[in-house]
């Protein structure tokens, strides 16, 4: 790299860092209007059960999804409990009788207890893949909100930190919800008028919104960020308080800032998300987002038979828009000419290279990135961001990966640096 290029990058990084440092000031106290905003158009929430009468097939599909079962009362549904409460494990410091809610079933399961009118996380989580208990406590210097709460889980209620995204219409004044879990109205907005007058004009259909607001339907919870105004009534919130579908998310929420070149709890040094539930932070950086692709171009949250509720299996969903010699790419006569891997092998899957599993959810279990950018071996060398080549070919080096990519005649040698 030339001296001029090095100086230019240093100047750009410095300018970017200075601009972000101004943004990192403590958030301003919330004005009274931000505490609890009524839904737009005077509509009220009625609960997902009210949708079942007319939308029975969709309702039945949705009811089996993880969205519909984020938090579950184990006394009502004992079958949901995955953790081994009979284990003799020092991490397990509570009993099943203390659990008011079980949270999650795919990668990990956490447990909340109820004290008064608040829920609090308990000190162990179940690692589903490894079938073992692991301690659970958000560490110091991890999430932005940690300094504003006490050092133990008993000091950290889920109301301000979690429940706004694990429910419909969480009321921060009464600590009540219309329903727990991601119900119909979380995405479609309050449904009272639609129940009274069923018509397309009396409910919000995210698929009919512009792409920014359509994606905000998911980004409101699948992102790391902060409310624009914090604290609210003396408490710091970790979800977009006051936002209802139909409003503008940007008026309530800002995505977590990142300092270019710095790896943090939330980000790799290049800005790619470092942890789970940051799909929105990734996606807004992508060419897909810029071109108007939406989350539900690939996912159907009402439920499918595919992993992650994809509309098609992962090996096929990308081919909906991308194919050999497609204007959208790849620029090759065949997919094999683009991937340089034998069809049917992991390396031939679009997601293996463009959505590598590098974002941690628990222990060594990672989820896929959503920038769709190819992370080069040189990025790994310079910024310590894992790349898909050596993440798969564990016995190889970044130098090997770089030279291999340069040997592919359909790949620009300038883009692998």
Contiguous helical run count = 16
Number of domains: 2
Major beta sheet summary: 6 strands, antiparallel
Secondary-structure element string: HHHHEEEEEEHEEHHHEEHHHHHEEHHH
Q: Which shape, going by the Cα principal axes?
A: globular
Please tell me the overall pLDDT.
91
The quaternary structure here is single chain
Specify the helix fraction band: 25-40%
Query: Strand portion, in percent?
Result: 5-15%
The parts where pLDDT drops under 50 for at least 5 residues are 1-26
Tally the beta strands.
12
Computed CA radius of gyration, to the nearest angstrom: 23 Å
Decide which structural class fits the backbone.
alpha+beta
Distance between the termini: 10 Å
List the helices and strands and how they pair.
Blueprint: H1 3-23, H2 32-35, H3 49-52, H4 56-63, E1 71-72, E2 101-103, E3 108-115, E4 118-121, E5 124-127, E6 132-135, H5 158-163, E7 167-168, E8 179-180, H6 184-188, H7 192-196, H8 211-219, E9 225-227, E10 253-255, H9 279-283, H10 287-290, H11 314-317, H12 335-339, H13 350-354, E11 357-362, E12 365-368, H14 377-383, H15 388-392, H16 398-406
Antiparallel strand pairs: 1-2, 2-3, 3-4, 3-5, 5-6, 7-8, 9-10, 11-12
Could you explain the architecture of this structure?
This protein is α+β, with helices and mostly antiparallel strands and 417 residues long. It has 2 domains: 30-255, no CATH class; 279-416, no CATH class. It contains 16 helices and 12 strands. The protein has helices at residues 3-23, 32-35, 49-52, 56-63, 158-163, 184-188, 192-196, 211-219, 279-283, 287-290, 314-317, 335-339, 350-354, 377-383, 388-392, 398-406, and strands at residues 71-72, 101-103, 108-115, 118-121, 124-127, 132-135, 167-168, 179-180, 225-227, 253-255, 357-362, 365-368. The strands form 4 sheets. Strands 1, 2, 3, 4, 5 and 6 form a 6-stranded antiparallel β-sheet that branches. Strands 7-8 form a two-stranded antiparallel ribbon. Helix 14 (377-383) packs antiparallel against helix 16. The longest helix has 21 residues, at 3-23. The protein is globular and about 65 Å long. The chain starts with a helix and ends in an 11-residue tail after the last helix. The model is unreliable at 1-26 (pLDDT under 50).
